[in-house]
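Reviewers of the previous submission asked for a worked example of the structure-prediction workflow described in the proposal, so we include one complete record here. The input consisted solely of the amino acid sequence. No template or homolog information was supplied to the procedure at any stage.
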Amino acid sequence: MPKLQNIKDELGGWRRPIMWALQVSVFAFSGVAGFLLRFDFTLPAEYLRYLYVALPIWVFVKIAAFRVLKLDRGLWRYVSVPDVHRVVLGNLIASVVSCAFILLMAPAGFPRSIFALDLMVSVMTTFALRLTVRIVQERAAIGWGNRYSGRNTLIYGAGDAGITLLKEIRNNPKLAYRVIGFVDDNPGKKERRVAGIPVLGDGELVGSLVKKHAVETILIAIPSATGAQMTSILGLCHAAGAECKTVPGLGEMIDGRGLAGQIREVAVEDLLGRVPVCLEENQIRRTIANKMVMVTGAAGSIGSELCRQIARFQPAGIVGFDNAESPLFEIEQEMRTAFPRIPFYPEIGSIQNRARVDEVLCLHRPLVVYHAAAFKHVPMMEAHVFEAIENNVFGTFNVADAAAEHGVEDLVMISSDKAVRPTNVMGTTKRIAELLLLTLQNGRTKYVAVRFGNVLGSNGSVIPIFKKQIAAGGPVTVTHPEMRRFFMTIPEACQLVLQAAAIGKGGQICVLDMGQPVKIVDLARNLILLSGLRPDEDIRIEFSGTRPGEKLYEELSTLLEDTIPTVHEKVRIFVGNGMPEDDMLTWLETLRNICDTRDTGRLVLALKEIVPDYSPSTDLLKRIIRCQDEQPNRPAVDLVD
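From that input alone, the workflow returned the following structure tokens.
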């Protein structure tokens, strides 16, 4: 290879003259071949005079035609079917023009059939020359003495993505894959050859094909595969003992590295089969562009991704508000590197501190606020009920009330599916926060709540926990075999939050389409498979029992709420009534007093009155009873509904 590279470097300045010399030779050859074919390869002497006149005309006119059509500018090593059309067109034009000149200048009696023969030979030889250059360069790139080298590989999917992947593997000697064949579930492709590579069978034959051909890697080239399809393919690959990788879907192909350059490990997101979000970007841009935007909880998983997504729409600046110093510093550094033209203002503070919230709003004057700051872990909030109220309810009220005072146009709060028929304190606080926004809607600030379920990879979600357990050798702990949750990716959730904010008119709860709920135990099994291990053999799965406040199935809406479709298929609106503002303020004051006295029993009763469909967890009720037994002087609370 170094010798070849040296030769190429030395000939670099002569490449175009060499190509033209070859092209002129082909033009001359096609003219001579036309005469020879016409006279069965025995050219009579009396016809030499016609050849002497026609040959220079053919060569000159074809050079001019190819020059005008820029057929001398292409890179021959990338010649393909579209180039055939251009080569045919160039030869046809040159042949017609040459015919006119020759009939005018040549002696009478010029054989007319030679024009057709010259055109036919010229088309074949000019394209054959380009194809030969491509073959020579491709073979030289991998070494003349070698076949395509590397790990024995199957490509799963003989469609457009699979063919493109094969071409890129062939053209890039750095990709260590030796493609043995295709696997495709379309029975019509079986035993066919695609780009010279056989389709060896369908997915059910993966195991036998891996053994027969000593396959080490399977590349999945089905960008449109559903989650169920990806799960099935992953199971077949791991059962066969082959390494499994994939290429991205259309939503991920945003850079110029090509398909092969984006080969990666199969991720758990692939198994969900989430369709890429199609955003109404102009609508979002009108909400954000050239405006100061504030994000509370900016250092968290959702908040930080909101900052990244917002920056794409050219705001005047982004205010990142959070009380976590180090994570806030990290997102500040990231934003300044990734979006140097968008000012990012990190502000440390707690939403529970109304004075600090007012101070930041007064300083930066944001017109749009995304409120993502919240305590969200269900079992943790069951053990810290007062802290959940102080942060999720009082903190939200501070932000929402201050937003109206400081002229904020739009406030969007991140809610949760756990606010629907809540069985835990965290979900109840989120439902109260939703009611707060509905109550405060008065025409000045537009309040919108966006409700969705779990996001993959967020802080404290099951995926990082499962990965740590797998890395430690197991076991992987799942609370219940029937536990199901809705899942989205963080970018998808944040994009739809921006979309919902642009759609909402104020005083509404937007609900995102979460797809179908996923069994947590299936998620655990798939994650073990993605780690190259076998569930229940290499890594055990244990069931630990449901945690305080958890329910087996989450919901995104109740039957009592009215569903309204929107212009975006993944965003629906639930219009619910809040409560009179005086009543809400009275309840807030009641909750403050209860938090001051730290009376858990009274707090649960108050929450039940505000959110009638709240069902306190058994664990929380036991704690209240135990507390009453330990403090007999405190007034007893009747917890019977």
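The domain at 281-454+488-513+555-580 is CATH 3.40.50.720 (Rossmann fold). We consider this example representative of the routine output the project will generate in years two and three.
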